[in-house]
Design a protein that fits this description.
Number of strands: 8
Strand order of the largest sheet: 1-2-3-4-5-6-7-8
Number of helices: 13
Shape: globular
Strand content: 5-15%
Distance between the termini: 30 Å
Order of helices and strands: EHEHEHEHEHHEHEHEHHHHH
Helix content: 40-55%
Largest sheet: 8 strands, parallel, barrel
Radius of gyration: 18 Å
Structural class: alpha/beta
């Protein structure tokens, strides 16, 4: 298992748009000290579409150096190109990543059998675990249950980040594939735990990591009532993420809290005054507004 609470870490930028690797390492340390069992580096939240290959790999190297002896570092190496994904995965392996997050190939809409071949090709270049990232809202197509069963036959495919609220499909993953199920949307963690899931790959844990970690712990110890209460208490964090497209709102929140992660790269734009006010209100109701 790669951990229970994994945070898809943002990529901090300086005012000139370059990556602030010092801030990145500090944030990685903070997250691991505050509830995260691992980090997903260079995922969507890390603005992977705007990162060069060299930037991705340096982020992975820095993350492994900062927290690799205390937490897992999962590299986002999936793209819509199988050859590019293979290249990034091999390089991330060499940089010490503990595992890989591979998104369903997007834009070119491969058939289900093409998805299977895509994952087989990537699995050939490393013996470390792969987490399948199923997010039909972004990539247009869903990895169907039968396809997920086929993917589970690939020896290094070990987990699924399921950003799909279909509980029937979630239960299929748990009951028929043997793969570890992670919620791919933060508000799915509790229902996925009820379905037999492991935890989540989260964004809101940038600001409420200890609460989420405690919620998972309580659930697995059998205290489902208190776990549900903690989940409901983090509702303002779910609202926060809806203020604007990810990672605009979470970066605004981190800056308000004093983490100085900078802005975003185009085509994303920074939160405007109204959006920042809404983010601040969510943080206030979450009870975390004391500066970092």
């Amino acid at each position: 298992m790669l951990g229970e609470v994994l945070t898809a870490i943002v990529t901090p930028f300086r005012s000139d748009g370059s990556i602030d690797f010092h801030r990145f390492a500090a944030l990685a340390h903070h997250l691991v000290e505050h509830g995260s069992d691992g980090l997903v580096v260079a995922g969507t939240t890390g603005e992977s579409p705007t990162l060069s290959d060299d930037e991705r790999l340096e982020l992975i190297r820095v993350a492994v150096g900062a927290v690799g002896d205390r937490a897992t570092v999962i590299a986002g190496t999936g793209t819509y190109s199988t050859a590019h994904s293979v290249h990034l995965t091999k390089q991330a392996h060499d940089h010490g990543a503990h595992g890989f997050l591979i998104v369903t190939p997007y834009y070119n809409k491969p058939p289900q059998r093409g998805i299977v071949e895509h994952f087989k090709a990537i699995a050939d270049v490393s013996d470390r675990p792969i987490m399948v990232y199923n997010i039909p809202s972004r990539v247009v197509i869903n990895i169907e249950p039968d396809t997920m069963t086929e993917l589970a036959a690939i020896p290094t495919v070990k987990a699924v980040k399921q950003a799909n609220d279909d509980l029937h499909q979630a239960r299929h993953i748990v009951e028929n594939t043997g793969l570890d199920l992670y919620a791919g949307d933060d508000n799915l963690i509790f229902p996925f735990l009820e379905a037999g899931g492991v935890g989540g790959v989260c964004v809101h844990t940038h600001v409420c990591g200890p609460q989420v970690k405690e919620m998972v712990r309580l659930f697995k110890q059998g205290d489902h009532v208190e776990a549900r209460r903690l989940d409901e208490a983090t509702e303002p964090a779910y609202e926060l993420l809806k203020v604007q497209a990810n990672p605009i709102a979470i970066k605004a929140a981190l800056n308000i809290l004093g983490h100085e992660v900078g802005g975003v790269r185009l085509p994303l734009v920074e939160a405007n005054e109204d959006e920042q006010a809404r983010v601040r209100d969510c943080l206030d109701r979450l009870g975390v507004l004391a500066p970092a």
